[in-house]
């Protein structure tokens, strides 16, 4: 008797900078979420699709839980917590280096308890701690909630990703494939391009600048050159909060903006499988994090 096909939605939730985007990219095997060592890198919920022989798993990578200070921050928190009630399975990601259940993780735990969802506890960065400390942490969390499974991993080393997928599949109900088997994200190419550019800016710029950035791709067009090879023309604007930030992003004689563009173009060429002609500009849009017309774009549909 052939195994019944399963499908379902899985939310990945955790504090900011705990490794959610690294994990989701590892599980999917494609780059669908940008990764930096800066907190609050993910701003909206991103769907990523894993197609297996007997299942289709749709992951929702959510913004990290933090204390919001703007309308954008509030929207990010609403998105993260809102995803818990609307999925089949929750992946709760924590760090192995935690000494105890901190305030942020405690808030997430309470939301999970309220939702009463099947939840897998993922303990990331196990390569940084000794076994005794890991076992003590597992015991603490196991007293708080009846987790469907507890899986210690190292997302960066792509350790135990198959085990995570196997455990999720066990918890899913029979259902159809919601996406074509060739798809691995529901993001548009423009969204992916804007996120790649923002990732490079986040990695290269000073700490005070990145959270005030957003990127808008105004043009993304495929054309053929004279020798019939394909090339994407991409035009994007990096928006920031202040004139002083604009100067930092551009850099002396435009050097920083050129570096951001070069690294972004290299990534985009790998992603698109073709040459890219990337042009970037920098503009100031003060207080955009509190403007409803912009913040609404970060809400999860």
Question: What does it look like?
Answer:
- The protein starts with 5 loop residues before the first strand and ends in a 6-residue tail after the last helix.
- The protein is globular and about 60 Å long.
- Residues 34-43 and 64-69 have low confidence and may be disordered.
- Strands 1, 2, 3, 4, 5, 6 and 7 form a seven-stranded mixed sheet that branches.
- α6 crosses α8.
- β5 (118-124), α4 (131-144) and β6 form a beta-alpha-beta unit.
- It is α/β, with parallel strands linked by helices and 301 residues long.
- 36% of the residues lie in helices and 25% in strands.
- It has two domains: 6-174, Rossmann fold (3-Layer(aba) Sandwich), CATH 3.40.50.300; 189-298, GMP Synthetase, Chain A, domain 3, CATH 3.30.300.20.
- It has helices at residues 20-28, 71-84, 103-115, 131-144, 161-171, 189-204, 243-250, 255-272, 292-295; strands at 6-14, 46-51, 55-61, 89-95, 118-124, 149-152, 173-174, 214-224, 230-240, 275-284.
- It has nine helices and ten strands.
């Amino acid at each position: 008797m052939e195994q019944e096909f399963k499908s379902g939605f899985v939310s990945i939730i955790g504090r900011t900078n705990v490794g959610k985007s690294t994990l989701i990219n590892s599980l999917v095997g494609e780059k669908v979420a940008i990764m930096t060592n800066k907190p609050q890198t993910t701003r909206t919920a991103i769907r990523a699709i894993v197609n297996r022989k007997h299942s289709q798993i749709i992951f929702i990578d959510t913004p990290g839980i933090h204390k919001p200070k703007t309308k954008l921050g509030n929207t990010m928190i609403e998105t993260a917590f809102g995803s818990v009630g609307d999925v089949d399975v929750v992946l709760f990601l924590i760090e192995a280096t935690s000494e105890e259940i901190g305030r942020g993780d405690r808030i997430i735990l309470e939301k999970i308890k309220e939702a009463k969802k099947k939840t897998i506890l993922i303990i990331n960065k196990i390569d940084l701690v000794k076994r005794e400390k890991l076992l003590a942490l597992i015991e603490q969390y196991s007293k708080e909630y009846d987790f469907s499974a507890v899986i210690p991993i190292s997302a960066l080393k792509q350790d135990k990703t198959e085990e995570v997928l196997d455990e999720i599949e066990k918890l899913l109900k029979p259902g159809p494939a919601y996406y074509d088997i060739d798809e691995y994200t529901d993001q548009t190419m423009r969204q992916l391009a804007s996120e790649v550019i923002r990732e490079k800016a986040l990695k290269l710029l000073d700490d005070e600048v990145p959270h005030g950035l957003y990127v808008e791709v105004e043009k993304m067009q495929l054309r053929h050159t004279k020798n019939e090879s394909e090339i994407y023309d991409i035009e994007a604007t990096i928006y920031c909060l202040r004139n002083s930030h604009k100067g930092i992003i551009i850099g002396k004689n435009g050097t920083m903006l050129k570096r951001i563009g070069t690294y972004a173009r290299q990534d985009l060429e790998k992603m698109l499988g073709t040459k890219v002609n990337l042009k970037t500009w920098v503009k100031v849009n003060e207080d955009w994090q509190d403007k409803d017309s912009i913040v609404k774009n970060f809400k999860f549909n």
